[in-house]
Amino acid sequence: MEHKKKLMKEQLPKERIKNFNEVPFGLTEAQAVAEASRCLNCRNPFCVKGCPAEIDIPAFVQAIKNKKFKDAIEIIRKTNNLPAVCGRVCPQEDQCEKFCILGKKGAPIAIGYLERFVADWEMAQANSLKPSTANPKPITAAHHKVAVIGAGPAGLTCAADLANMGYDVTIFEALHSPGGVLMYGIPEFRLPKKIVEKEVGNITGLGAGLKLNYIIGRTKTIGDLKKEGFKAFFIATGAGLPNFLGIPGEELNGVYSANEFLTRINLMKAYKFPEYDTPVNIGEKIAVIGAGNVAMDSARCALRMGAKKVYIIYRRSREEMPARAEEIERAEEEGVIFNLLTNPVRITGDEKGNIKEMTCLKNKLGEPDEGGRRRPIPIPDSEFSIPIDTVICAVGNDPNPLLVSTVKEIITGKRGNIVADEEGRTSVEGIFAGGDIVTGAATVIAAMGAGKKAARAVDKYLKGL
After folding, report:
1. How far apart are CA 87 and CA 84, in angstroms?
2. Angle in degrees, 0-180, between the axes of helices 69-77 and 111-123, rounded to the nearest 10
């Protein structure tokens, strides 16, 4: 069996760097059935244990094998309200596929590709906005009003599960479009926005209300919502406050946080300027600091915005890079230059305050740090400079303190994240939290898992259990 990544056809690198269209085309029906037929249908399916969304993976895979695609999507939607999203951006290689028995001697089942296939099949049907599995319980007087703050993966998942339980749910979103990081962070060529819009439509179709341009902590506080009759709250505002390097020259023109850069391109559609009025002037030589998925997204967007050279500057080696292997490979295919074991130390500008170059040091790896990765150690006298027009910092995010500052009783960690237990309970009765606001920047599927756990905890709380 050839490697699973060869299953889907893709745009050629030289073509795709000129557009924002989705890179892989998805499986054909024949490919999906053939791939599903490889499943051993294990009596003790370890793949399920690796799925935060709790999908019955063997059941939906067997349904695809038997060409029962409607059954397959119904099985998935019993526990996952964002299958078309997960099939594209979930790191299956580190979760469900990692535990596939076939992976011990060859390629594991391409579970993510199969999930994408059947979700796309559903969307191609006439009733795509009203999945047959959407059968929420009617809202009753006994089922109280619940506020979900943030329309990202965690918030959408929690809202959908609570709506299915019969609760009167309202989602409050600060931006003008729902989806959170799915809309502002992940580029069109990895996750088309029409996919997100349809998945959100499925969730609001369950009965969840949605209020946009609504900043809890500014438009209204949690205290205000309590006066309006809301009995429980799930905070899922993510981690959207960007970190910077703390080196000289970060104040120069042309230094972006990855948040700003990707939001301009994805949510504000800068790649369609002047049709949309958000320009991004980046020049020809771009340095992206970091090596996670956000860094890869930034680098690949820069190429599509017209950059001639794009560098990934990362202080460790390839083995320590946190991005998905698939995204690293695609970035390399597209021509991104990787400067590994490299640490930026200053940015130099011209007399007009524009970036001229970045000075870096080479590193070597020492002993593992508290996170288990080998610590980068600067090599003396290894300084060198790279001519640069733009620097994009993709070195992580912290939670925005606005909402939490209006609820003084909530206990937070040293980086401003909300402290919550495994089921999302915070230090304040009736207030739950999950996703990046608790864990720091993590994966879409981890946030969804947190939303599912919190929905069950909210249900228990409101039932007095």
Report:
1. 5
2. 110
The one-character DSSP state at 41 is -
Which two tokens mark 136? 């929420």
Residue 146, C-beta contacts closer than 8 angstroms, at least 6 positions apart: 162, 167, 168, 169, 170, 230, 231, 232, 233, 234, 458, 462
Q: Is 200 exposed, middle or buried (0-12, 13-18, 19+ CB in 10 A)?
A: buried
* Angstrom distances, CA of residue 300 to CA of 74, 293, 303: 35, 11, 5
Q: What is the CA radius of gyration of the chain?
A: 23
Distance CA 196, CA 323 (A): 22
Residue type, 296: M
Hey, what are 448's tokens? 């969804």
465 residues of the chain, pLDDT tens digit each: 444 555 899 999 999 999 999 999 999 999 999 999 999 999 899 999 999 999 999 999 999 999 999 999 999 999 999 999 999 999 999 999 999 999 988 899 999 999 999 999 999 986 544 544 445 566 664 579 999 999 999 999 999 999 999 999 999 999 999 999 999 999 999 999 999 999 999 999 999 999 999 999 999 999 999 999 999 999 999 998 999 999 999 999 999 999 999 999 999 999 998 898 888 989 999 999 999 999 999 999 999 999 999 999 999 999 999 999 999 999 999 999 999 999 999 999 999 999 999 999 999 999 998 878 899 999 999 999 999 999 999 999 999 999 999 999 999 999 999 999 999 999 999 999 999 999 998 999 999 999 999 999 999 999 998
Kindly report the number of other CB atoms within 10 A of residue 217's CB atom. Answer: 18
Report the C-alpha gap between 146 and 226 in whole angstroms: 10
Instruction: Provide the β-strand partners of residue 344.
Output: 360
Other beta carbons within 10 angstroms of residue 90's beta carbon come to 29
Domains of the chain: 4-123 (1.10.1060.10), 145-240+398-462 (3.50.50.60), 244-395 (3.50.50.60)
In contact, 336 and 300? CB cutoff 8 Å: yes
| Dihedral pair phi/psi, residue 287, rounded to 5° | -115, 125
Cis peptide before 322, with omega less than 30 degrees from 0?
no
Q: Sheet of 285-289: strands edge to edge?
A: 255-257, 390-393, 285-289, 309-313, 337-339
For 250-300, the DSSP string reads TTSBTEEEHHHHHHHHHTS-GGGTTTSS------SEEEEE--SHHHHHHHH
Distance CA 42, CA 62 (A): 11
Q: Is 179 left (phi over 0), alpha (psi -120 to 50) or beta?
A: left
